[in-house]
Each structure stands twice: as C-alpha cells, then as structure tokens.
Amino acid sequence: MLQFKFLGILMGVAIRTKKPLDLHLAPLVWKQLCCIPLLLEDLEEVDLLYVQTLKSILHIEDSGITEDNFHEMIPLDSFVGQSADGKMVPIIPGGNSIPLTFSNRKEYVERAIEYRLHEIDRQVAAVREGMSWIVPVPLLSLLTAKQLEQMVCGMPEICCDVLKKVVRYREVDEQHSLVQWFWQTLEEFSNEERVLFMRFVSGRSRLPANTADISQRFQIMKVDRHRFSFLLVVY
C-alpha cells in the first residue's frame, strides 16, 4: 500500500509540475481515480474472455445445458473466480464452501463481476491518498478519466506540429535546407522513433497535453566543422 501511495504522490507531482509520467494504466483505473462508477464494459476492455465466459455461464441453457449435466460442462464447483492476476480466488467470503449450481449461476455471475470491478479498490484508494498530499483530490471528480490521464501522462503521440511550436533556432533560419531536412526526417519517423528522439534531447518520453505547459524548449543550432555543416539539437 505504501508503494501505491508513493505512486499517487508521483502522479500529483506530475500534475503540479506539468512533467508527464509514462504510465500505462487500464482505463478503469483512471475512472476509479475520478470516482466514476464502473460498468461491465470497463471489465470487457481489460478481460474480454473472462466476461464472455461469465455470460456463457449465465445463459448456459441456450447451449442445451440443464441442471442434470451442468457440472459436466462447467469445471467450477464453488463460488471462486479468476482475479486480475489469473489466480482462482473466492469471489465472496467463504466462496470456497458455497457450491455453484445451475439454479444459483446468476448470483455467481453477478458476484464474480462485482468482485472484479472492485478488486483494486484498496489500491486505488491508496493512490488517491498519495495524490491528496499534492493536489486537491475532491476536484478529480470534475474530470473525465481521459482528462485525468492526459494531465498525469501527457500525450502518447509525439507530434511534429507541436515540436515546431516550441523549438528555438540559434544561428540558423527555419527555412534553411538543413532545418527542412531535419523536420522531413522527423516526420518520417514512427511515433516510437520520435519518442526515442525526445528521450535523447530531453530525457522525457511524453509531452504535456497542453502545448502552453511545455516550459523547456529544445534548440536547433547550426555548427560548421571543416567544410561540413550540421544541426545540433539541445535543450
């Protein structure tokens, strides 16, 4: 829990300083951080196969399964289900001793979905507690999950148009052929290659969602060495 709290502190610092973190969290985590109620569709985004399995159990009669042959087709015999890390765990207290039958399969599916949707409530609460040390977390409920993710993580795509807005030129004009070649090459890069470029010149792999929040601007300068001219890109 202390590590999750520390993660929350880092996320709060990222918001305050406008220095994005390269985090890859499931969409439902961002929704929980914003106190947005989770839906079955949120679970489908991260574990579609498990949701389909639960739905097949709920409507198993459509496949011709009856109470007589239920246990021959369903390998589960109690109220246990798959957790996010793939382990089989009780989905309710004492679930190991509660038999799963044809008649209570609806309750089983409801409990299994409820368990998965709230499986990480304690961890999310710890992250929010860490964030509360840096930012006013009650205001997070005013944001959408996407907005919060962008505030913490910035934009995953490194766009050349954005870079052109924050670049500074030293001893070289932006119309110079070397500069034109530079931008042409950068535009031909894949996003992964542009991320590597950003890491090389700035040590960061994400840009703030708002261009105005980019405080550090990289510079392009011309360097002449022994009849050759080249560009030097620095922060």
How would you describe this structure to a colleague?
Helices cover 47% and strands 10% of the residues. It has helices spanning 2-17, 27-33, 40-46, 48-58, 70-73, 105-117, 121-132, 145-153, 160-166, 177-188, 191-202, and strands at 80-82, 88-90, 168-170, 219-225, 228-234. A three-stranded mixed sheet has the order 3-4-5, with helices on one face. Strands 1-2 form a two-stranded antiparallel sheet. It is built from eleven helices and five strands. It folds into two domains: 1-154, no CATH class; 160-234, 2-Layer Sandwich (Hect, E3 ligase catalytic fold), CATH 3.30.2410. Helix 1 crosses helix 7 and helix 3 (40-46) packs across helix 4. A hairpin with a 2-residue loop joins strand 4 and strand 5. It is mainly alpha-helical and 235 residues long. The relative contact order is 0.14. The longest helix is centred in the N-terminal third of the chain and has 16 residues, at 2-17. The model has no long low-confidence stretch (mean pLDDT 87).
